[in-house]
Amino acid sequence: MAGTRLIQWLFLLVWALVMLKTESANVSITIVEDAVAKGAVCLDGSPPAYHWDKGFGAGINNWLVNIEGGGWCNNVTLCLNRSETRLGSSKHMDKAVAFTGILSRVQNYNPDFYNWNRIRIRYCDGASFTGDVEAVDPATNLHFRGARIWPAVIEDLLSKGMKDAKNAFLSGSSAGGLASILHCDSFRALIPSGAKVKCLSDAGYFINVKDISGARHIEEFYSQVVATHGSAKNLPSSCTSKIKPELCFFPQNVAHEIKTPIIFVNAAYDSWQIKNILVPTIVDPHGTWHNCRRNIKKCSDDQIQTMQGFRLDFLKALENTGNSSSKGLFIDSCYDHCQTELQETWLFDDSPLLAKTTIAKAVGDWYYDRRPFQKIDCPYPCNPTCHNLVTVLQEHPEL
């Protein structure tokens, strides 16, 4: 009987995935050629790009702008390697990509945003759109110009109809989630007055904590990112005037200054942060954490306790978002990273729930002011709806 149920479940899963693939048409790329004249270019000097699935029906004047994630490069060598990939050059980007999750055009899978203009801005600068160095080293031809890409792409979208937006929503995951935090207020400033404008950060709330060896690995890494890309002048001055610029790359030091309504969707046990901030490979030479980092169900009791400590640090850092009712929180206790762009975690039959609510429902209710949503899950392993994805282990998998 159990075997029969398993076969039936697998059949339904395969059928659902086929239907999703069929209904999620690929969206063609748009190259912003005019941006080159403004010096707004990818790491290799190629023009920036985005994908745009046009709105229809009642959503024709609504715009959802999503920023792609993909980590950061913190030195010339890594940025040079990155410039030969889709994360550093529009020459290497796919000509079309599938839109799922918050970007889906299928009403059943994305009821609040399916008919909006949905845009995915490609990420090709390596510093969450903060860098701006005028000089270009002829030996590498690297361009650190992410801060110029941001307004250039938005201006292109404004010229194509976003100037008439009634609703506008900036979202992003991972490094794109960090970008949505850092650029939330500037997005609001670029959108015509009168529109409802809000932001969403998915898995972008990276925290500054010590790793298991006692070192601040991530703080040093961000320091190198900021120095390499010349990011300091493009980080919030309200922060950089008080503390070191690299510390202003951490949301906990800037989130309370955001004036535009924003919702934070994050796993309290963010798998990327666990693997790269709490337990980077360099501090685990004997591989004691190898299986645990890959699969939370294989963690020892002591390792779980360490991860519970990380959760408490994360929740403490999250307090810096402030207590404004305009801010939303969906903090589940899953071992995951990025949940709004994947259909299975955004809205599906077995999507994660918090307070009996899917991420899609929580975000939609919050955006449309149907009800506020500020919920934090109980500690692992209390939530049986979590997927707790098993990952292929890499150090800095997004870099």
From TrEMBL:
Residues of the signal peptide: 1-24
Annotated GO CC locations: plant-type cell wall
UniProt keyword terms in alphabetical order: Cell wall, Cell wall biogenesis/degradation, Hydrolase, Secreted, Signal
Cellular location(s): Secreted, Cell wall
Any coiled-coil regions, as ranges: none
Annotated GO MF terms: pectin acetylesterase activity
EC numbers on record: 3.1.1.-
Annotated GO biological process: cell wall organization
Enzyme class: hydrolase
InterPro entries per UniProt: PAE/NOTUM
Keyword Signal: yes
Broad class of the protein's primary localization: secreted
Family to which the UniProt record says this protein belongs: Belongs to the pectinacetylesterase family.
Task performed by this protein: Hydrolyzes acetyl esters in homogalacturonan regions of pectin. In type I primary cell wall, galacturonic acid residues of pectin can be acetylated at the O-2 and O-3 positions. Decreasing the degree of acetylation of pectin gels in vitro alters their physical properties.
Name under which the protein is recorded: Pectin acetylesterase
Organism: Quercus lobata
